[in-house]
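Researcher: Hi, I'm a grad student and pretty new to this. My advisor asked me to get structures for two proteins we've been looking at. I'm not sure of the right format, so I'll just paste the first sequence and hope you can take it from there.
Model: That works fine. Here's the first sequence with its structure tokens right after it:
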Amino acid sequence: MNLGSPESTEVKDVKRYLDEFLMDPRVIDYPWLSRLLLVKGIITPFRAAKSAKAYKTIWTSEGSPLIVITRQLQLALQQQISEPVEIAMRYGSLTPDKAFNALLKKEPGLEEVIAVPLYPHYAMSSYETAVEHARGAHKSGKYTFKLQFVKPFYDDALYLAALADRVSPYLSWTHDHILFSYHGIPARHIHRDDPKAVKTCLALNGTECVTVNPTNKNCYRRQVITTAKMLMQRLNVPPDKYSISFQSRLGKGWLEPFTDKRLEEMPAEGIKKLLILCPAFVSDCLETLEEIEERGKEIFTKAGGESFKMIPCLNDHPSWVAALKGWIEQLKNGNKEMLLFE
């Protein structure tokens, strides 16, 4: 289960997609009327045309890169396992009920579906909304099969091995630094159930949480720091050779430092040759191909950068397919620890 995409690069289709995406209360967590006025009165009327232009720069002859890549992943995995594989999106026309119905056609006696939200890290605006959307479709469709979810896999050994296999060939490129650009979220999302905790939150103050406890187990910032640290340890990259930033912000109060600002600052700090990767995404999409590979490179180069290389997402890399296959084998062998709920 991935994010989704507009049906085309036409402004009307992009506007429809943005309306659905931004009206999600887990994306913009304002009261409904305030969200409606903001999204349909301010954001989408002005942003749709700009976003449509951005989509045109990355659109392929087969359609949206995110959709195409997710289908390629589906095909690659299906060739490795006997269980039927379908894809669904959180937004757009590839809805969970269509995936459920397609699975039932292949397996009329279907008893259980395992959903894999393709988000390594927990955030209410990505992983959580995908889970709740699929649950809603399951409930409203009165399906009799059991629905379960693979939990966020930011520190899973198979995921990290796949990520290491993707990144390691690029380490031979001459570079001064590696930047992990993660998708940003509003800082208030991290402690939405306990706002007072913001004052003492180590993650929001730029410090790594040493231990995992009930209050920080789903902390997005802690999880992205963990992914970066564990990956760099696997690849023997010292801590002073990589850093973390956050992209795609909407408004004030989002996690810092901001990727676009860091790209502007780095050349003056002596970082002229940069490798950049976006592990919050497993499939290349608008936020990686246009925001980072195109606009990010332009920002870095204009600021004095000499070399800029974006490492592709996992996409349908053989090691990523192997990781998904490995999870399925673990589940078949009775290992339920990777599931969100029993």
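Researcher: Oh nice, that was easy. Here's the second one.
Model: And its structure:
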Amino acid sequence: MKSILLIEDDSDIAEKLLKEFEENNVETIYCPDKESAIKAIQGNFLFDAVILDWFFEGDSSDESLVSKLIFKRLNGLHFRPVFVYTNNKSDFEETPKEEISYPENLITCYAKEELGLSELKEKISVLLSDNISLQLADTYRQSLHKTLEKILFELNYLPDIDISIILNKIYGDGQNVDWSNDLILNLLHRSLLTTEDFISRLTVLLKKINGGTGDDDSEKRRKIANKILYYKSSSEYIRNGDIISVENSDESFSIYGIVVTPDCDLEQKNTRYIEIVELRQIDDKQLGLNADQNKRIKSFNHPSLYYFPSIYIKNELIDFVAVLKSKFILLDAASSQSKYPEASERLLYSMNYIYNAVNVKINLVCSKTNPYKSEFLQKLHANNSRVGIPDIKDLF
């Protein structure tokens, strides 16, 4: 433990904590009010853990309002443990979890009257040294930073060329920003895998984890599979591998599918249609699958149905299958009457489309992650699977 973010409005307790940490060579970033706390969270200060007073600056009927705001500001910026140190422990424990926007496993609460300051310091030290998630985070945090700096230097040592020129050449006419980004990420990934210190530290930490694979963990494993297989794209462009829903204006029908039009075609502005492979829920009555067929599908060993497990639809995990022999076409409504349409832009989700002579809207559900997208496309076109991709069937 090198530094602590202390958010406490009781000056007597804050003074004692500051002295305790100073005597143990721990730097303290002290925030006595809301303004200084938000500034510290949004700044470039580095700290190992947070001590937060529940009812910090309580000035309303909801005296924990500022404390909840601090949790919200921490979320997404600092993956650090938070120690709620308070005279109002019962209020914190009775607060609904959804009102605290922070991972529950990173929060520990102690009553001030039950735990002394030196004991609190010891609890923080023990957690930082024993919590594998926090150690993994530090391993990645340190290694990624060092490796990225190394790559940036390497790219700028090319004769008469610097990184801006390299990325600009790949960027081309403005359609390939993702390829420019991939250059840096691929170099980063390749460099990490050749860093012995990173690999050894990671291996040691992962071997400490005793992860079960029993049936009681099935829902947890489905959530992990969802994180591995899919991501939520923020792009307004339609891309190969996007999983979509197609609905008419009154939402009287809705179908699901995955975009299989090649990216190289979608990036051509004269492509005015989208090719979709239909997705159906695995328990769809029209499919009429029996137990043996379900087993084959979930082993990715079915000739015409490809498994898409655990997709989030309206906050529910649903298993789908791609019906490889069932494709449909969506036409750009603005150019559907023209045989040779002139396009001013690429196909966007905001456009109107036509399916079976009906105007429809397309909604992005999520996108399939490489290399699993490539494996699906290989199965679609060549009826086999790629070799060398991570096997996650055990998660199902």
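Researcher: Is there anything I should tell my advisor about the second?
Model: You could mention this: The chain is about 40% helix and 20% strand.
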